[in-house]
C-alpha cells in the first residue's frame, strides 16, 4: 500500500501552514513535513537566496518535484509552499488527497507575515503585493481544498484541534 499524507495544508503566506501544521502533527502523533524546508535542504540554501541566484522559475521547478515526492512518500501532515497551487501539475497531484485550506484575510495575514525579510515575493510593495497574491490565488486554494478552515483571530492550537477533529473518520 502506498503512503499518503493524513492531511495536506494549503493557504496564503501567513495563513499558518507551518505553525498549524507542526501543532497538528504533534496532536496526531505523526511527522510534519514542509515542502519549503525540503527545497531548502535540497538546494542547501534559504528560499530567498534561490530566488536571487536562480530565479522564481527555477524555484517553481524544485517545488513541483518536492510536492510530487512528498505526496508519494510522506505519511504525516504535509504543508505546501504558499504558491504551490499555482502549478496545474500540483493541483492535479492533489486530487484524491485530504487537503485543508487555511483561509486568512489580509489584515491577519499582514500582521503575521510582518512584511519584513524572508518572503522574496513580498520584497517590493509588500502589502499591495500580498493583497494581489491572495486575490489571485483564492480560487485555486478553493479548487484543491476538501475543507476550508478560517484562521482569522484564532490561535494555532485551536486550529490544530479543529482540523484534528475534522480528520476523525
Ligand atoms: N493562527 C495564528 N494566529 C496568530 N499568529 C499566527 C497564526 N498562525 C501563524 N501565525 C504566525 O504567523 C507567522 C507566519 O506563520 P507561518 O510561517 O506558519 O505561515 P505559512 O502559511 O507557513 O507561510 P509561508 O507560505 O510563507 O510558508 C508566524 O510568525 C506564526 O507564528
Ligand atoms: O507564496 C509564495 O509564492 C511562496 C510562499 C512560501 O511558502 C515559499 O514557497 C516561497 O517564498 C514562495
Ligand atoms: Mg510555511
Automatic annotation (TrEMBL):
EC number, as in UniProt: 2.7.1.71
CC cofactor note: Binds 1 Mg(2+) ion per subunit.
CDD domains found in the cross-reference section: SK
SUPFAM superfamilies registered for this protein in UniProt: P-loop containing nucleoside triphosphate hydrolases
Residues noted as binding Mg(2+) in the record, renumbered to the chain: 18
GO cellular component terms, A-Z: cytosol
Pathways per UniProt: Metabolic intermediate biosynthesis; chorismate biosynthesis; chorismate from D-erythrose 4-phosphate and phosphoenolpyruvate: step 5/7
Family to which the UniProt record says this protein belongs: Belongs to the shikimate kinase family.
Name of the protein this chain belongs to: Shikimate kinase
Organism: Micromonospora inositola
Name of encoding gene: aroK
Amino acid at each position: 500500500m502506498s503512503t499518503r499524507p493524513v492531511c495536506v495544508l494549503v493557504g496564503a503566506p501567513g495563513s499558518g501552514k507551518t505553525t498549524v501544521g507542526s501543532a497538528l502533527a504533534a496532536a496526531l502523533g505523526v511527522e510534519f513535513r514542509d515542502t519549503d524546508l525540503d527545497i531548502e535542504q535540497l538546494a542547501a540554501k534559504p528560499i530567498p537566496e534561490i530566488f536571487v541566484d536562480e530565479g522564481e522559475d527555477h524555484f517553481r521547478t524544485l517545488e513541483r518535484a518536492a510536492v510530487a515526492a512528498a505526496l508519494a512518500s510522506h505519511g504525516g501532515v504535509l504543508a505546501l509552499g504558499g504558491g504551490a497551487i499555482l502549478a496545474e501539475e500540483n493541483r492535479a497531484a492533489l486530487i484524491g488527497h485530504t487537503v485543508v485550506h487555511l483561509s486568512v484575510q489580509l489584515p491577519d495575514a499582514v500582521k503575521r507575515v510582518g512584511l519584513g525579510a524572508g518572503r522574496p515575493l513580498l520584497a517590493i510593495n509588500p502589502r499591495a503585493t500580498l493583497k494581489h497574491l491572495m486575490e489571485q490565488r483564492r480560487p485555486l486554494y478553493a479548487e484543491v481544498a476538501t475543507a476550508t478552515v478560517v484562521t482569522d483571530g484564532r490561535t494555532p492550537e485551536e486550529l490544530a484541534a479543529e482540523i484534528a477533529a475534522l480528520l476523525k473518520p
